[in-house]
Structures are given as C-alpha cells and as structure tokens.
UniProtKB/TrEMBL annotation:
GO terms for biological process: DNA-templated transcription termination. InterPro entries: MTERF, MTERF_sf. Belongs to the mTERF family. This is Uncharacterized protein. It holds the Pfam family mTERF. Keywords: Transcription, Transcription regulation, Transcription termination, Transit peptide. The keyword Plastid does not apply. One of its GO terms (molecular function) is nucleic acid binding. It comes from Aristolochia fimbriata (White veined hardy Dutchman's pipe vine).
C-alpha cells in the first residue's frame, strides 16, 4: 500500500470533518481502512445517506465502525440492508438500527444473520417479531449463538419456562436480556428473588411478565430497594408479598417512585402499610394523575374505598362505580 493511497483516504476523512486524532483512532480500529480507495469510501458514504441515515449522523456511524468504508458495496452492504429491510415494519427502522449499532453492517448475511434468524425462529418467534427484536437491539447480531444466546435460553428453561413459545415471548418483550451474563447477572438476581421468599412459580412470573427485573444488579438496586422497604416498616413476609404481587418494586427509583407513594399513602390518605400489602400494584399507578386525583375526588364526597377498588379501573369505570358526575 502506497503513501498516496493512505493520503487519499486521510484527505477524504478530513473533508468529511474528522480531525487528526479521530482519523488516527479509526485507522487503528480498522487496519483495512489504510488501503481503501477514495472512490469506494465515497460510494459507501453516499449509500449510507441513500438508505435514510441522517447526514449529520453518518460521521458518528463511520467513526464507530470505520470498516463500513472498506466493505464492498454490492457484496456486503447492500445484501445486509436488503435483508434487514425485509424485517422492518416501517420506514426508518433499518437506518435507526444501523445508527444505533453500525457494526451490524460488517457482519455476513449468510454466516451471521441467517443462522441468527433461524435460531430465533426455532424459539417460536414470528418473522414480524424477529424484525422488532433485531431492529430494536441490533447488537444481537454480534452475539455468539453457541456461547451466549443458547446460555440465556438454557437459563430461562432452568427456571421452568419450558412451555412452547414461552421463551421466545420473553426475548421479544425484552431483547436486552440477551446482553447480560447468566453467571454474573441473571442467576444472582434469580437467587436473590428466592432468598426474599419468592417460589418457583413466582420467579417464572417475574421472568415472563417483568424480564427487566432479572437484568438489574442485585447489590446496587434490588438489595437497596429491599432494605428501603424494610426501613419503611414492612416485614420480610410483607416484602415477599409485595415483590410477588408487583416485582418492579425492586427496581423502581426509591426517591422518585417508592418514597413519595409511601409518604402519600401515610400522610395524605391516612392509610396503613398493610393496605399496600393487600394491593402491591399500588406502586404502578401515577402519583398525580391517578393517586392524588382519585383520592381527592373520593374525599370531597366522603366516600371510603379500598385501594384496589379505587385504582384498578380506567377513569370511565371509576366515575361510574362511585357515581361521580
């Protein structure tokens, strides 16, 4: 490779607004870039714009994955984009996925994308859902089926989620679960849930309905929330009931969500913590739009009501139930 060729690609990158430090980093990241002809780099750059990537975002895309400028347009980029386009449900899905994870373009359709799609289809995920899954979390294409994705599936199976199609539904609901380590994150979280009193069926419910709970750090979040609930006056058995009834209680913000709702229950509504134990989903309702508003409406009319009766319905049914005009 001659210095003229290297100078040509450096000149092209400078024209596109990259400074010397960024260019140096890109050359270190992708050795092939040194030998790329200006014409190919320009052609690929234009193609990124043609498929809908915002002109202002292309430099960011290219700096994250400089290899894009070195790949054959018709051999690599076009086939991948065309394949992804068949998975998209609306215009802009593909360009958004590429902007989010540019490395998706550096992978092979035959060697990586096709086996990945086949793997997900074997879990009962439909073609439409596949698109949602991959375009929402395009980083999936970089994961190994054998050493990463299969481990996640085996972990979920070990929780007792063996009914056909069940694991596929979890992955579609929360694709980001596949980015976590079973050993370092998912298993410790599952073990913690057992330690606070959840039974096997309870943990299955958490995994199926609230998979995001399994993805959070035990030390930083789950245990911190557990301790806060204890210091607020709940005993361990009550906390187990709370977590079973509304698992996100362990990952909600203490300052912005849990604390103000407990304070409102005690100080404004004049209720006891046992009322929440009977209705753990109290914590899912908006403080101002539902809790404060409905409490005020009932108080003005001197109407007594349990939390579930007061909250577990839409506004129309609430008004009808309590005869509010």
């Amino acid at each position: 490779m001659g210095s003229a060729q290297l100078g040509s690609i450096i000149g092209f990158l400078k024209e596109k607004g990259f400074d010397a430090e960024t260019i140096d980093g890109m050359l270190k990241k992708c050795k092939r870039l040194e030998g790329v002809e200006r014409e190919r780099a320009s052609e690929n750059w234009i193609y990124l714009s043609k498929i809908g990537i915002n002109e202002r975002k292309i430099p960011s895309v290219v700096s994250k994955c400089p290899k894009i400028l070195a790949l054959g347009l018709n051999e690599k980029l076009v086939p991948m984009v065309q394949c992804l386009a068949t998975l998209g449900t609306k215009p802009g899905d593909v360009s958004m996925a590429i902007t989010r994870f540019p490395h998706i373009l550096s992978h092979s359709v035959e060697e990586k994308l096709c086996p990945l799609l086949a793997f997900f289809q074997s879990l009962g995920i439909s073609e439409k859902q596949l698109g949602k899954l991959l375009l929402l979390n395009p980083r999936l294409i970089s994961y190994s089926i054998e050493s990463k994705l299969t481990q996640i599936v085996e972990f979920l199976s070990s929780l007792g989620l063996t009914q056909e199609g069940m694991i596929g539904k979890i992955l579609v609901k929360h694709p980001f679960i596949m980015g976590y380590s079973v050993e370092k994150r998912l298993q410790p979280t599952s073990d913690f849930l057992k330690s606070v009193g959840l039974k096997e069926l309870d943990i299955q419910r958490v995994a199926f309905h609230f998979p995001e709970v399994l993805c959070r750090d035990v030390k930083k979040i789950l245990r911190t929330n557990f301790i806060y609930l204890r210091t607020s006056g709940f005993n361990d058995r009550q906390i187990a009931t709370l977590v079973t009834g509304y698992p996100p209680i362990l990952i909600k913000s203490i300052k912005n969500s849990i604390e103000p709702r407990i304070k409102f229950l005690r100080e404004v509504m004049g209720r006891d913590l046992s009322d929440i134990v009977e209705y753990p989903e109290y914590f899912k309702h908006g403080l101002k739009k539902r809790l404060e508003l409905r409490h005020r409406m009932l108080k003005q009319r001197n109407i007594d009501s349990g939390l579930r009766e007061m909250l577990e319905c839409n506004h129309g049914k609430f008004v009808l139930k309590f005869g509010i005009s």
